[in-house]
Amino acid sequence: MTSYPIQLLDAATDKLVEAELHDDIAEKQLIDWQFQWRPAMQTYLKRLAENGIGPKDTAWPQSWHWDWREKINEIRGLLGHTGYSVVCRDVTQGMMRLDLTSKQARHQIQRGKPLVYVDYLEVAPWNWREPYADPPIYRMVGSVLTHAAFTRSVNEGFKGRVGLHSLPQAVPFYEHCGFTNFGTHPDEFDGKLPYFEATPEAADTYLKGDLQ
User: Phi and psi dihedrals of 6, rounded to 5?
Assistant: First the structure.
């Protein structure tokens, strides 16, 4: 595993703090998910329920059922799959799983070319900016992971091409990052998740800009 120095924004002080990007999701990250992320998620779900919000409401977190240990076990030992994690003050703040080999671009100007596909990307619950959540502790975690996906695409020789299916709640984020929204398809994820793709030009713009 290789670690890279990065910075996150401390939401309380509005100042940058030192953090690390790891090109792996190790056991430490899975322990943080199990013993810190999951209890925080349960606390948030309880708060939503107390306010009359249930699983069928749009405010209910759409990643609430994700099991990161299972997601990493699925790709353990498989070539062409990898993970990234963001760590600050020895606590995992975000994770991402990538598929480097099995997907091809759909955008008209790059159709059929290889790309990096983001299987999953999630930020720790205490960093969410949601109406019923506590104020976030850190910002820019999702941006750092997206930056890592673009960078990995460049390093793989894919020129920044990245694709993903987005949870509906994350659509504004990926549109802000410069991805093209191709909408949903009835044969994919029950027609519920829109497909997004970024061109090399979009990746270059993102990589040259300031993380937000």
Answer: -135, 180
